Amino acid sequence: MNRRQLLRIAAPLIAAGRTAAQQAAGGGTTLPVEDYQPKSMLRVPETKVPRSRYPVIDWHTHITGGGVPGKETRFALTAETCLPVMDRKNIRTMVDLTGGYGDALRQSIAKLQTAHPGRFLVFTEPAYDNASDGGYAKMQGDLIQDAHKAGARGLKVLKRLGLVLRENGNGPIVRIDDARFDPMWEAAGGLKMPVAIHTSDPVAFFLPIDRFNERWEELHAHPDWGYYGKDVPSDRELQEARRNVMRRHPRTTFVCLHVAESEDLAYVSQCLDSHPNMHVDIAARIGELGRQPRMSRKFFDKYQDRIVFGTDASPSPATPQQLFGDLLYEIYYRFLETEDEYFDYAPAPVPPQGRWRIYGIGLADAILRKVYRDNAARLLGLPA
């Protein structure tokens, strides 16, 4: 037997031995992607920001889980769990967007807004149960009036409108700009109740869940979050329908949540330029903003009067990018106040939205004051 023949026989045995040794040492030729948690070897400055430079209004939180009349509101968080974090992190006020409507709304207002004046504000939500009925438009307009009398400070519109709600339960998707909602938008505008509106989702959610999708891990863990192949409008169709609403109701103030749910800041800028009644919050999107820091800094500079601070704070472990607690706020403050490089955008061992890190944009003090509190205070009618 010659040397070549010996090597041909021995090679698989050598490879098997090497693989076994690697696995014994904690390595190996294969590794489940969910177990991959690389540690950066970069040595860059790390700035701790335990407390915001200026007082904060967190425009976008989910302290309650919403609710309908006759059913007790599900409190996801409580005032008692929130207040210590708020005091440590310099958060003056948290806005609970999902306060429900009717009796559930009154319960949310009593336990938060009334019990702790100035620390919590509560928004109402639409009632979609009878959306296909002929009298729905008037009923929904009247419901906003009732919510305002009860103390609601604004209206939260979930992405249920445009992506989930269907005619008679199983018919065509109900469009965001459907005329039956005009009395709702008009009532909010007439009562100076800002509308916090969530319309779409990351563009990756509308694409195939394959090896090219940068949010593959997130969608693999939550496949029901994906819209590809489903009978729903495209991301741009949803965005344009919302623009129709803002165009038709110029006296109503809209805060488009999650930076208008778009990774395309040029398009968001175009929308802001076209619609003076449009604002945005940054909740659960510093992962997008922070990986384009130069573009984001220009965006904050130009629209400094129309951006509000928000985190989408929630206790749900399914969404670690918005998990409520000290670390969540410290990451947001670091993004806004420092020029640190390449740090985690969420309090999670694995980046929850995509495998990248972010860079701080180091806003000037005058802009920080506006983003942290002043812009939201103006929209909510609070003292300067």
Which fold name corresponds to the CATH topology?
A: TIM Barrel
Gross morphology: globular
Total beta strands? 8
Low-confidence stretches: 9-25, 68-72
Mean pLDDT: 90
Number of domains: 1
Q: Main β-sheet, in a few words? A: 8 strands, parallel
The H/E string reads HEHEHEHEHHEHHEHHEHHEHH
CATH-assigned homologous superfamily: Metal-dependent hydrolases
Helix content: 25-40%
- Assign the CATH architecture: Alpha-Beta Barrel
Strand order, main sheet: write it out: 1-2-3-4-5-6-7-8
CATH domain class name: Alpha Beta
For the record, give the distance between the C-alpha atoms at the N and C termini, rounded to a whole number: 91 Å
User: Which structural class best describes the helix and strand composition?
Assistant: alpha/beta
Give a written overview of the molecule.
It is a single chain. Helices cover 39% and strands 9% of the residues. With 384 residues, it is α/β, with parallel strands linked by helices. The protein has one domain: Metal-dependent hydrolases (TIM Barrel, Alpha-Beta Barrel), CATH 3.20.20. Helix 2 links the parallel strand 1 and strand 2. The longest helix is centred in the first third of the chain and has 22 residues. About 6% of the residues have low confidence.
For this entry, give a set of tags.
384 residues, alpha/beta, TIM Barrel, eight-stranded parallel sheet, 39% helix
What's this entry about, in short?
The protein has 14 helices and eight strands.
What is the topology?
Blueprint: H1 3-24, E1 56-61, H2 79-89, E2 91-96, H3 102-114, E3 120-124, H4 136-150, E4 154-157, H5 160-163, H6 182-190, E5 195-197, H7 216-221, H8 235-248, E6 254-256, H9 257-261, H10 265-274, E7 278-281, H11 286-289, H12 293-302, E8 307-308, H13 326-337, H14 365-380
Parallel strand pairs: 1-2, 2-3, 3-4, 4-5, 5-6, 6-7, 7-8
Helix pairs in contact: 3-4, 4-6
